[in-house]
């Protein structure tokens, strides 16, 4: 949600939110034990992410969870007002967020990207995108897995994870490519999604009326060089 009417002052650091949520979140009926606030200095506003709802795929279930999310957001406001009054005592909700769905359905590709390949920065002959984003797996209500890598770490996404094995003219891009849950949690952030979108377009262009499984990979790499090297 977006909050407004914040008071200027010493903002809590990220660990303080997590510690206080861990110690007192249950008293406010909150499910998360971590979370964060992006405060915009001199604007009196902040983006808050301290809620968690399931994201069912049927519309009625999704609507019910959206209402539950707003209820949780209201309780987060109470929590912030009481626990961090210097900043939040006058805060009110400017806008509730819509539930964000990080990972839902994904294709069965020619290759499933694995967490081990992400951790070991595996190169692929048909690599089309790269990122250094940590594993960021939001698989449970209380919090999430955050597994950062070393400073020079970069890992790669192969074209094989974008293409179903038995379709000649389908290329997935973004969060619906084939990866195990942990691997996908790293490569589905916006930068690599954009790179995958570019790769998908070039792969289909190179395939023309032929199969996307039989394109010239070195030609594809030349087109994507800015996203893979340097
Ligand atoms: C709460 C939350 C926080 C996040 N925080 C970050 C962050 O801080 N940094 C970061 O990099 N990433 C973040 N992400 C992840 C990132 O935003 C998404 O994973 C990424 O945007 C997915 O890109 P995409 O192209 O796969 O899908 P989308 O961006 O969802 O694009 C799919 C598009 O397809 C359209 N569409 C759907 N159905 C149809 C149809 N039938 N016909 C035509 N169009 C259709 C949709 O309208 C949409 O525009 C976050 C995600 C969530 C949920």
Rg over CA atoms = 21 Å
Helix % is 25-40%
- Find the structural class using helix and strand composition: alpha+beta
**What is the general shape?**
elongated
The bound ligands are: flavin-adenine dinucleotide
Q: Outline the low-pLDDT stretches.
A: none
Q: Which oligomerization state do the chains in this entry correspond to?
A: single chain
Tally of DSSP β-strands:
8
How many helices?
Answer: 8
Q: What is the residue-mean pLDDT, rounded to a whole number?
A: 95
- Distance between the first and last residues' Cα: 38 Å
Biggest sheet, spatial arrangement of strands: 2-3-1-4
Strand proportion, as a percent range, falls in 15-25%
SSE arrangement, N to C: EHEEHHEHEEEEHHHH
> What's the main sheet like?
4 strands, antiparallel
| Integer tally of domains | 2
Q: What does the secondary structure layout of this molecule look like, with pairings?
A:
Layout: E1 2-4, H1 14-24, E2 36-40, E3 45-49, H2 59-83, H3 85-88, E4 92-95, H4 115-119, E5 127-131, E6 135-140, E7 143-147, E8 155-158, H5 181-187, H6 190-207, H7 217-223, H8 225-228
Antiparallel strand pairs: 1-3, 1-4, 2-3, 5-8, 6-7
Flavin-adenine dinucleotide binds next to helix 6.
């Amino acid at each position: 949600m977006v909050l407004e009417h914040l008071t200027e002052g010493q903002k809590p650091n990220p660990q303080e939110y997590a510690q206080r949520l861990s110690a007192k979140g249950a008293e406010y009926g909150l499910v998360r034990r971590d979370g964060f606030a992006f405060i915009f200095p001199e604007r009196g506003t902040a983006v808050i992410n301290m809620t968690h709802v399931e994201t069912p795929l049927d519309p009625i279930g999704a609507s019910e969870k959206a209402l539950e999310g707003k209820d949780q957001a209201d309780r987060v406001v109470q929590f912030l007002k009481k626990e961090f009054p210097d900043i939040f005592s006058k805060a009110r909700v400017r806008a509730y967020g819509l539930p964000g769905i990080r990972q839902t359905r994904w294709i069965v590709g020619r290759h499933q990207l694995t967490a081990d390949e992400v951790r070991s920065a595996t190169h692929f002959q048909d690599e089309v995108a790269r990122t250094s984003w940590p594993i960021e797996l939001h698989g449970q209500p209380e919090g999430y897995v955050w597994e950062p890598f070393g400073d020079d770490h970069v890992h790669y996404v192969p074209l094989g994870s974008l293409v179903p094995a038995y379709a000649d003219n389908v290329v997935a891009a973004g969060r619906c490519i084939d990866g195990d849950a942990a691997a996908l949690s790293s490569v589905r952030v916006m930068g690599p999604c954009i790179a995958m979108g570019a790769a998908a377009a070039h792969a289909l262009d190179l395939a023309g009326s032929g199969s996307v499984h039989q394109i010239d990979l070195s030609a594809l790499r030349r087109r994507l060089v800015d996203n893979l090297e340097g």
